[in-house]
Every structure is written in C-alpha cells, then in structure tokens.
Write a structure and sequence with these properties.
The chain crosses the membrane at residues 52-72, 92-117, 138-161, 167-192. Keywords: Membrane, Transmembrane, Transmembrane helix. InterPro entries: PGG_dom (IPR026961). With 214 residues, the protein is an all-alpha fold. It has helices spanning 2-14, 17-20, 30-37, 39-71, 90-117, 129-159, 167-200. It has one domain (2-200): Butyryl-CoA Dehydrogenase, subunit A, domain 3. α4 runs antiparallel to α5, α4 (39-71) packs parallel to α6 and α6 packs antiparallel against α7 (167-200).
Length: 214
C-alpha cells in the first residue's frame, strides 16, 4: 500500500494541477478512484500490520516483565542495609545499566506497537506514520533483546566472580549471542525494507525491480 501511495503522490507532482481535481465521466476525482481501487490492498496492509504489531508486542511485554523482575532480584543479594553486596564490581554496574535499558527500550517498543494497533489505518497513515512506528518498535525491540542478553550474561559473571568456574559465564555469554543473531536474521530484513520503502523509494521510485514491502 505504501508503494502505491508513493506512486500516486509522485504522479500528482508531474501532472497539471487542474487534473488533480478533475472528474471522470462518473463524477469521480483521482483520489476517489484510487481509494476505491485499493480497498482490498488497504485491508491487507491493515491486517498484516496488526498481526506483526501484536506478535512483537507480546515479545516486548515478556521482555519488560522479565527485566522488571530482575531489577528486584539482584544477583548476589543485599546486605542488612538493603545495599547490593556486589555493588563495587563493574560487572554489577553493567548488569544494572543493561537491565534498565532493556526495560526502557521494551516499554518504548510496547508503546509503538500499541500505537499501531490503535491506529485509524487511513490511507495516508501507510505513507509514513505507520512505517515509522514499525521501525521504531522493531529497533527498540531488537535493542531490548540485546541489553536483556547482556544483563543475563552478567548475572552469571557476578555469580561466578569468586569461583574457579569462570568458564561458565564465558560460555553463557557466547550462547547469549545466538538469540540476538536469530532475531537479527529474521527481522532485520523487515526493518531494512521498511526503512528503504519509506525514505529511499522517493529517489528511485520509477526504477524497475523494486521490492515492495506491502
């Protein structure tokens, strides 16, 4: 739908201004004809966005729940004064920062996907508003996964800091890279296509073999 809207906007720029509001034999102006002929495409785009936003919102909510709980179950525990025992270690600071960033970014993702789900899904929303929200949501979700994995890894670094099993946190940290790579492999093409379709399509819109997002 976004590509069709871009085509329509580009055509409006190159035709004579009086043609934009000129009616055909049935008394329809170009915008009315465009809207009528793209009803099904608009519906398909709406359903696709809702499904994508709903799925990503579930993941973002799970991440927010996990990292929020982790903030109150600090690794190493606290002393009688309520101060974290491992507060002096750099690894603990990294854990706190990454956990906080994971929470904030996952909340941003939730808000973006919620905004998509509650959108009016008007034609012009597909031009920039909805793709921009989708890009921000996906980027925030990806960042929250990265920071969550960092926090998870440093939990083991703190737990095994004074033991002879320092290979355990190293192995866990290496393993934590795998879900990040999987998400990047599966979702980065969508993020790239959305960005390209929103910001690059105007420069080479009339070139053939362009990949259409939706």
């Amino acid at each position: 739908m976004q590509q069709e809207l871009l085509w329509f906007e580009e055509v409006k720029k190159i035709v004579q201004p009086h043609y934009i509001k000129e009616k055909n034999k049935k008394g329809k102006i170009p915008e009315e004809i465009f809207s009528k002929s793209h009803k099904l495409l608009l519906k398909d785009g709406e359903e696709w966005l809702k499904h994508t936003a709903h799925s990503c919102m579930i993941v973002s909510t799970l991440i927010a729940t996990v990292v929020f709980a982790a903030a109150f179950t600090l690794p190493g525990g606290t002393n009688n004064s309520g101060i974290p025992v491992d507060l002096q270690y750099t690894s603990f600071l990294i854990f706190i920062l990454s956990d906080g960033l994971a929470l904030f970014s996952s909340v941003v993702a939730i808000l973006m996907f919620l905004s998509i789900l509650t959108s009016r899904y008007a034609e012009n929303d597909f031009l920039k508003s909805l793709p921009l929200k989708l890009m921000i949501g996906l980027a925030a979700l990806f960042f929250s996964i990265i920071t969550m994995m960092i926090a998870f890894s440093f939990t083991f670094v703190i737990a095994y800091n004074n033991s002879g099993l320092k290979w355990v946190p190293f192995l866990i940290s290496i393993s934590a890279i795998f879900p990040i790579l999987v998400f990047a492999f599966l979702q980065f093409p969508l993020l790239l296509d959305t960005f390209s379709s929103t910001y690059w399509s105007r420069t080479d819109l009339f070139q053939p073999n362009r990949h259409m997002l939706y």
